[in-house]
Amino acid sequence: MILTSLVLVLLAVLGAPLFAIIGAGALLGFSRAGVDLTAVPIEIYGIAETPILLAIPLFTFAGYILGESRAAARLVRLSSALIGWLPGGLAMVAVATCSLFTAFTGGSGVTIIAIGALLFPALVQAGYSERFTLGLVTSSGSLGLLFAPSLPLIIYGIIAEVSIDSLFVAGIVPGILMMLCLAAFCLWRNRANRRPLAEFSWREVRVAIRESIWELPLPVVVLGGIYSGFFAVSEAAAVTVVYVLVVELLIYREVPLRRLPVIVRNSMVLVGGILLILGISLASTNYMIDAQVPQQLIEIVTRYVSDQTSFLLLLICFLLLIGCILHIFSALVLVVPLMLPVAARYGVNPVHLGIIFVATMELGYLLPPIGLNLYIASYRFNRPVLDVCIATLPFILILFVAVLLITFVPALSLAFIQK
Amino acid sequence: MSEAAPADDGPGPAERLGRWIENALLALVLFAMIGIAAAQVLLRGVLGGGLAWADEALRLLVLWSAMLGAIAASRDNVHLRIDLLSRFLPETSRRLAAVLVDVFAAVISGVLAWYSWRFVAGSREFEDVVLRDWPAWPFQAILPTAFALIAYRYVADLPRHFRPRTGGSGGR
After folding, report:
1. Which residue of A has its CA nearest to B107?
2. B113-123 pLDDT, tens per residue?
3. Which residue of A lies nearest to B83 if distances are taken between CA atoms?
4. Does residue A234 sit at the B interface (CB-CB below 8 Å)?
5. What is the pLDDT of residue B8?
6. Å between A316 CA and nearest CA of chain B
7. Spatial contact of B70 and B150, defined as CB atoms under 8 Å apart
8. How far apart are CA A140 and CA A365, in angstroms?
9. Ramachandran class of B113: left when φ > 0, alpha when ψ lies in -120 to 50, beta otherwise
């Protein structure tokens, strides 16, 4: 048993696809337990029995279309017009636009590529140091995963079987807290450079609003619809995708129709990758529950960890480690089923746990040596990875403080949830 | 589609045809999903009730999009992986590791294809139905088909690890 696990871990770090690793684990586990192995495909077929999964392909496709259009440029222009005149305003524009864009595009590095590229030259031009800019753009790229309609929260809700609407509500305050921490840091770091970017101009605001008039209703409809409970999550996804298709393809006409097959393929390749490991992990999770793996884990953990505080600290360290080696979707399907029962043992609310999980994983994206966003930023802005790491370090520390607050003040997540 | 395309002169006709079929099916499934889901929202808003078959059809389409996406992901070699060690290995060991993990992935996909096929055969025997009275097995057949194609892809791509690295034609 231990030997097989070691071999699987070795294969995984050598680069075997995760679906094969999880699949091998499930097949071996079931066969050892004497269960007919058709149990594995039957579990995978569970993809077709989980209605909420519909939201995943729809939101992903909509996000890819938005990423291809000039929506990012319009968003940056509008928020610069609205808050760019504040001292340190452009940095706050970066934080705000990145969060909104990441929430809608799923945070697979699209934000750094689409928005970072626009903001980087603008920030440097406005007198922010290059190192500061690099760090800011890289770290803002993973903000926003705590807001609806974030895919990681949806997937957490599916795996943990908690209400996705509650998760979205619970994510609001922690998400805003992370944004505020970064914005406050930007103000403080640039207290010498208080020169506003530009005068406030009604004309510019009007032009920017007129330019993005068709996209402005989207966050209102989707976020309003989800947070008010008017739309179910998958209904909101259907509305989003139709809206985005009409606006970007027919009204703005920025995404040419012949690009569509490529966008469909790229988004569905990601969806296939996520849903495949999700489906296979349904099988491996079932096996692990049969084999009482969570109970054994609880026994081991309770032997060494006595109270909730030390458990949560340990959890954050563990998640940071996981966050820098695993993509957030893989981490969700692999870790959450095992972590849930243990956390419940320490009295951690599953909704709160989801928020901790996603917030910490956002940070994991940035951790050297293997955080994904470091490499995307290094590639996109043509800077050595080491430079990006050094530039991002202060931002990581700030966000880490935010994660600690989110973790140890459950009320931030749970205050607005109806019991 | 019997063998992998030669390395140098870009994708061969089999490669192009396969990719085209994947893209067409993906688009078909995705837009069917969008159409039905949007119709459901409209009907619920206007009439207060949707189509009886739509929710189940949507769930089956999600399964199909997932498996078709997974087939495409293995052609593009972009399945989620950790890949921690291999970038630090010297060239020869890196290639050996790549062969090892691809053989492993092919074997597991093959086993999954076989048991998926048994699952589908069983479903056919017991005459399981979906969407009120349609036989379930053609809808479920995407599972063995997808895993078989994924296994085939890992086998077909093996020679790529033995070619000198000239950049360009390999996966990402």
Report:
1. A20
2. 999 999 999 99
3. A15
4. yes
5. 47
6. 20
7. yes
8. 11
9. alpha
Q: Is the model more confident about A265 or about A71?
A: A265
Using pLDDT thresholds of 50, 70 and 90, give the confidence band for residue A306: confident
Which helix (H) or strand (E) segment is A416 a member of?
Answer: none
Residue A64 near chain B (CB below 8 Å): no
**A15 and B CB contact within 8 Å:** yes
Averaged pLDDT score across all residues of chain A: 88
For B88, name the nearest residue in chain A, comparing CA atoms only.
A14
Cα separations (Å) of A334 from A18, A60, A129, A144, B104? Answer: 10, 21, 40, 22, 20
User: Is the separation of the CB atoms in A63 and A324 below 8 Å?
Assistant: no
* Mutation site for A-interface testing, chosen from B21, B25, B26 by largest number of A Cβ within 10 Å: B26
Q: Residue A161: exposed, middle, or buried by beta-carbon count in 10 A (0-12, 13-18, 19+)?
A: exposed
Average pLDDT on B35-51 reads 87
Question: How far apart are the CA of B156 and the nearest CA of chain A, in angstroms?
Answer: 16
Q: What is the pLDDT of residues A195-234, one digit of tens each?
A: 665 678 888 899 999 998 998 888 888 888 888 888 888 8
Record the tokens describing residue B147, joined without a space.
């895993």
- The three-class DSSP label of residue A46 is helix
Residues of chain A with C-beta less than 8 angstroms from the C-beta of B85: 13-15
Beta bridge partners of B134: B130
Task: Kindly tell me the sign of the dihedral angle through the C-alpha atoms of A135, A138, A140, A142.
Answer: negative
Are B112 and A279 in contact (CB < 8 Å)?
no
Q: Which of residues 73-132 of A touch B (CB under 8 A)?
A: none
Confidence class of residue B149 from pLDDT cuts 50, 70 and 90? Answer: very high
Vertex B68: Cα angle to B65 and B72 (nearest 5): 130
Is the pLDDT reported for residue A29 higher than 80?
Answer: yes
How many Cβ pairs within 8 Å bridge chains A and B?
A: 196
Note whether A34 contacts B: Cβ–Cβ < 8 A: no
